[in-house]
C-alpha cells in the first residue's frame, strides 16, 4: 500500500508522489513498483557508480566525474543535463522518465548514480567488481539541505515544518532511509570492494586534491591546468548558473526553484542557521549513540 506520511501540499495543483517501503527503506512509490527490475539490474564491469545519501554533493560529484572523463572539455560536459548524462538507476518519474531504462539503453562505459543504501544495491555491481565513488556529508548540513530539497521537489513527500522534519530525519523516516545507517554501511563495505569513500567537507576545503584523487581512481592522469579548470567549472557559483547542472531543465511542476533553489548554498556549517540549541544537543546525543560502532569522522564546521 502506498502511503504519504505528510499532507499533500501543492504549489500548482500537481500532487506529490506517494511513498512506500522497500525492505524497510522509504522510497517513492514508482521505485517500489519497479523494485524487482531495479534489484535485477545488470551492471557491467566497466560501469562507474556514484553513490551518495541524497543532498550529500551528488550533482557536484557527477559534474566533477564527467569533466574528469572528458579531460576538462567543458563543451562535452554541457552536452545534456546531469540526469541524462548520468542515469539515476532507481529513479522513475512518470513525466520525466526512468533512470533504469536510460541506463539499459546507454552504451558502455556507463557512469551511473544511486542513493541506495549498500544493502539495497543491485548485487551485480559487487559481482562485476565495479568502481564505486561514495560521497558522505556531515549529517547536520545534510539534513538542512534535504529539508529544503523536499520543500521544492514534488517527487518527494512534503517535509512538514522544520521541527517535524528534524524528527523524521533522526528516525530515518525519510526517503532512502537513515543517514547514519547509509554512511556506516558504505564505510564498512569500502575495504572489501573498489569503493573510493570521499567527504563533502574535504571537497569544499581542498577541491583540487580531492579531484586529483578522483581522477586517479577513475584512471585518468590530468595535468595541473586541467585540474584547475575542473575546480573552476565545478565551483558552486559556476554550477549554479549552468543549466546543464542546476536542474532548471526539470519542469517546475516537479521542481519549483522559487520555493528553494536546487543549488541553494553549498556551504559547510549552514545547520547553525536552522538548529536550535535544544535540537543541537539532542542531535549530538543521538549521533553519539548511533555512530558509536564506527570510526568515521565528520567535520561539522570549518574553524
Automatic annotation (TrEMBL):
The keyword Ubl conjugation belongs to this UniProt entry's keyword annotation: no
One GO process term, biological-process aspect: ethanol catabolic process
EC number from the UniProt entry: 2.8.2.-
GO MF entries: aryl sulfotransferase activity
Keywords linked to the UniProt accession: Cytoplasm, Transferase
PANTHER family associated with the record: SULFOTRANSFERASE SULT
Catalyzed reactions per annotation: 3,3'-diiodo-L-thyronine + 3'-phosphoadenylyl sulfate = 3,3'-diiodo-L-thyronine sulfate + adenosine 3',5'-bisphosphate + H(+); a phenol + 3'-phosphoadenylyl sulfate = an aryl sulfate + adenosine 3',5'-bisphosphate + H(+); 3,3',5-triiodo-L-thyronine + 3'-phosphoadenylyl sulfate = 3,3',5-triiodo-L-thyronine sulfate + adenosine 3',5'-bisphosphate + H(+); 4-ethylphenol + 3'-phosphoadenylyl sulfate = 4-ethylphenyl sulfate + adenosine 3',5'-bisphosphate + H(+)
Location relative to the cell: Cytoplasm
Gene: LOC122916416
UniProt xrefs under SUPFAM superfamilies: P-loop containing nucleoside triphosphate hydrolases
Assigned protein family: Belongs to the sulfotransferase 1 family.
GO cellular component, one term: cytosol
Domain Sulfotransferase span(s) in chain numbering: 46-294
Pfam families (alphabetical): Sulfotransfer_1
Protein name: Sulfotransferase
Classification lineage: Eukaryota, Metazoa, Chordata, Craniata, Vertebrata
Predominant location: cytoplasm
Amino acid at each position: 500500500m502506498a502511503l504519504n506520511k505528510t499532507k499533500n501540499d501543492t504549489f500548482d495543483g500537481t500532487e506529490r508522489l506517494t511513498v512506500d517501503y522497500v525492505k524497510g527503506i522509504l522510497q517513492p512509490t514508482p521505485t517500489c513498483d519497479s523494485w524487482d527490475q531495479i534489484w535485477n539490474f545488470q551492471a557491467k564491469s566497466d560501469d562507474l557508480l556514484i553513490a551518495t545519501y541524497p543532498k550529500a554533493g551528488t550533482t557536484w560529484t557527477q559534474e566533477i566525474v564527467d569533466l574528469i572523463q572528458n579531460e576538462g572539455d567543458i563543451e562535452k560536459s554541457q552536452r545534456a543535463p546531469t540526469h541524462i548524462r548520468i542515469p539515476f538507476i532507481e529513479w522513475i518519474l512518470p513525466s520525466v522518465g526512468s533512470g533504469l531504462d536510460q541506463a539499459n539503453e546507454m552504451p558502455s562505459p556507463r557512469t551511473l548514480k544511486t542513493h541506495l543504501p549498500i544493502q539495497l544495491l543491485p548485487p551485480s555491481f559487487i559481482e562485476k567488481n565495479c568502481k564505486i565513488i561514495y560521497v558522505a556529508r556531515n549529517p547536520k548540513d545534510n539534513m538542512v539541505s534535504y529539508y529544503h530539497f523536499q520543500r521544492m521537489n514534488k517527487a518527494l513527500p512534503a517535509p512538514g515544518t522544520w521541527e517535524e522534519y528534524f524528527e523524521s530525519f533522526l528516525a530515518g523516516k525519510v526517503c532512502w532511509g537513515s543517514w547514519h545507517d547509509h554512511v556506516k554501511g558504505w564505510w564498512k563495505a569500502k575495504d572489501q570492494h573498489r569503493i573510493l569513500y570521499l567527504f563533502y567537507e574535504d571537497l569544499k576545503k581542498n577541491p583540487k586534491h580531492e579531484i586529483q584523487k578522483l581522477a586517479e581512481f577513475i584512471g585518468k592522469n590530468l595535468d595541473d591546468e586541467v585540474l584547475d579548470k575542473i575546480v573552476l567549472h565545478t565551483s558552486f557559483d559556476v554550477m549554479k548558473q549552468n543549466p546543464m547542472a542546476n536542474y532548471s531543465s526539470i519542469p517546475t511542476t516537479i521542481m519549483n526553484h522559487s520555493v528553494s533553489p536546487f543549488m541553494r548554498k553549498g556551504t559547510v556549517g549552514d545547520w547553525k542557521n536552522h538548529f536550535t540549541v535544544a535540537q543541537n544537543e539532542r542531535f549530538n546525543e543521538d549521533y553519539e549513540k548511533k555512530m558509536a560502532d564506527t570510526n568515521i569522522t565528520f567535520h561539522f564546521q570549518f574553524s
